Structures are given as C-alpha cells and as structure tokens.
Amino acid sequence: MKNMSENRDNYTRVHEVIQLINRLATTPCGLTHEYIEETFGWKKRTRERVLQMIASMYPTAWTREIRDDGKASFRLHRQSIIPVNYFDERDFAALGIAIEAALNNDLLKKPLENLQSKLSALARVSRAMELNIEQLTLANGIASSPRPRIKLDSGIIAKLQEAILSFHFVRISYRNTRDKVSTATDLCPLGFLYGEFNNYLVAASEKTRGNPWTYILHQILSVEILESTFDAQDFNIHDYAARSFGVWQEERGGYDVRWLVNKSVAERARLFQFHPTQKTTEQKNGDLLVEFHADGLLEMARHLIIWEGKIKPLAPKELIEEYRRLLKAAGYALL
User: Fold this and answer.
1) Which runs of consecutive H residues, i.e. helices, occur in the chain?
2) What does the CA dihedral 203, 208, 210, 215 come to, rounded to 10 degrees?
C-alpha cells in the first residue's frame, strides 16, 4: 500500500509540474514564489527544486525578473518551448480570416473548414483561447462582401480532387453553353483555377492534343473516376495560371499587351500588379505605360472598364475590339 501511495503522489507531482510549466509560459507578468506555493500547496524547498529543474530544462526560455514591489517573478518565453506542432490563437485567427475571405468560393472554403475542425480537435481549444481568437480576428479580420456566385456540386468537386491527387483519368459529362448539348469527355485533370466570374478545371485530353485546357466547373454535370492513370509531366498550375490575365487561355499562347494609364490615376495604378510579367514605364507627360504578355482578353476588358476610361488599351487590336464591344453593350443596356 505504501508503494501505491508513493506512485500516486509522483503522478500528481508530474501533473502539477506540467501545470506550472503551462502557467509560466502563458502568464505575461510571470509567477511569484508566493503564488506558486499557495497554488500547488508546496513548501519552499519543493518550489525551489521544481523551479531549478524547469530552468535547467528550458535555459533559453527561462526568465527571472524583479517586480516593482521587490518580489521575484518567473516566466517562460512560450515561443522558445512550444513544440513544432503547437497551434496558438494567431494560427486559428488567421485560418478563420481565410475562411471568411473564401466565403464565395466553395473550392477553398470547405477544405479550410475541414482543416479548422481537425486542428481544433488536436489543440483542444479552451474558452479563454476562443475569446483570444475572437479578438485577434476582429483586429486582423476582413469581411467577405456579399456578391453573386454560382454554387458548385460538392460531390463533383470531391471526385475531381481525388482524381487530381491520384493521377487518374476521369470521364465527365460537360454541358456546352452555346448549343446546350452535354457530351462525355475523358480528361487528365491537373488542377483548379479560381476566377472572378467562374471557377475552372484545368485538364488535358486527346481533343486538346495533350495541352491543358479550361472547363467551367458548374458546367460539369457528372464525374466518373477511371482506372487508368496518366503522367502529369511536371505540370505546374502556378506557371500555367501566370500565362493569363484571369484564367482564360487560348491555344495561340497569349498576346503582347500594352495599356496607357492616365497621369490622373498613375499613382494609384502603381499600387497594382496587373500581371506577374508586367513592365511599367513612366511617360514624359506623367502617364504610365504598362506592358505584359498574357491571355484573357475578356477579363482584361472587364477590368479596364472599372477605371472609367483612365486606362486605355493600346494593343493588341483584339483587346481594343473587346473593350469597345463591352462599352457598346453597356451603353445599349442603359437605353
């Protein structure tokens, strides 16, 4: 019986030491001798031995300070002792902000929510931690403004994600918006692109001669994962996306684009990176010349319209025509 009692005392002491380490790491003002002895019911000798042990365990994190009342206080710098898989309030707040930002994009929102649920279970979020997360979210958060969006079939997205990760062919039923006809197509799915108006699947097929092509996600009616696999040949979705302004790409490989920014909005335009390959040149009269190589003329024209004529397309001629077409369509809509 004596040995059992001693073992129980040892387990209790270990639990108390762990509690003390947690409090030393989470109390900004530190803990005094008196607080430690009263909280854990320790005598002076026990308290001294435990503090010496903790100091030797975390020599770079250990801090001893003298307060204004002359009492010594002790604390641990949390950043120096937390394990690599530790998640704090800032991590959860950042994840919550990302979910809010992805409110209108189911492709991003659902996986982020799943991640949030898994991390919460691992970290065992307390009520105090929840309050800190709320405050950090308010301090750093954003509100995702309501706007029209097309809802996507979560089952179809899940199958496509599975096929992309496992390099399996898929057979999709795809509705063509021009003739309203649904066709079955076998594809090598490579990734997703998130657009302002539509979200897309990037995939290759025999029809596109193995070159990546974009398919509007909400026009995919069904997905069947096939047994055969494919070689992605080091395809990089980020490199592919950089070839376009927005997401749309044609087979020709893009255009040499030139925009002229009026000097009245030049200062604001300098804050924008319109495209990763852009080059800006200041003109003698204060205007800016923006040049880059990309595809996606319709999305360029839509963007230029919001500048209310302060940014005008100079090249290619196809972009000028698309820009004029949108302006004309908008004028007719107001008549």
Assistant:
1) 2-26, 33-40, 44-57, 78-81, 89-101, 106-123, 127-140, 154-166, 237-241, 266-269, 297-305, 317-334
2) 0
pLDDT by position in tens, the chain (length 335): 333 334 446 667 788 888 888 888 878 788 998 999 898 888 888 888 899 888 888 887 888 888 878 888 888 876 666 554 566 667 777 777 777 766 666 667 777 777 777 777 656 555 566 666 666 665 655 555 555 667 788 889 889 988 988 899 999 999 877 666 778 889 999 988 877 677 889 999 877 777 888 898 999 999 999 999 988 877 888 888 888 887 777 666 789 999 999 999 999 999 999 998 899 999 999 999 999 999 889 889 999 999 999 999 999 999 999 999 999 887 765 55
The CA dihedral of 171, 176, 179, 183, to the nearest 10 degrees, is 0
Cα separation, 276 vs 254, in Å, equals 14
Q: Which helix (H) or strand (E) holds 225?
A: strand 220-229
Give, in order, the Cα–Cα distances in Å from 197 to each of 147, 280, 304.
10, 27, 15
Distance of alpha carbon 263 from alpha carbon 235, whole angstroms: 40
Backbone angles phi, psi at 70, to 5 degrees: 90, -5
Q: Give the tokens for residue 58.
A: 């975390």
Q: Domains (ranges, CATH) in the chain?
A: 16-81 (1.10.10.10), 89-140 (no CATH), 154-241 (2.30.30.100), 255-334 (3.30.70)
Distance CA 304, CA 324 (A): 11
Q: In the chain, what is the straight-line distance between the N-terminal and C-terminal CA atoms, in Å? A: 96
Cα-flanking dihedrals φ and ψ of residue 112, to 5°?
A: -65, -40
- The CB-based long-range contact list for 25-29 (8 Å cut-off, 24+ gap) reads 25/61, 25/75, 25/76, 25/77, 25/78, 25/81, 25/82, 26/78, 27/75, 28/75, 29/67, 29/73, 29/75
* Cis preceding linkage at 313, omega within 30: no
Please check whether residue 324 is in contact with residue 315, taking contact to mean a CB–CB distance below 8 angstroms: no
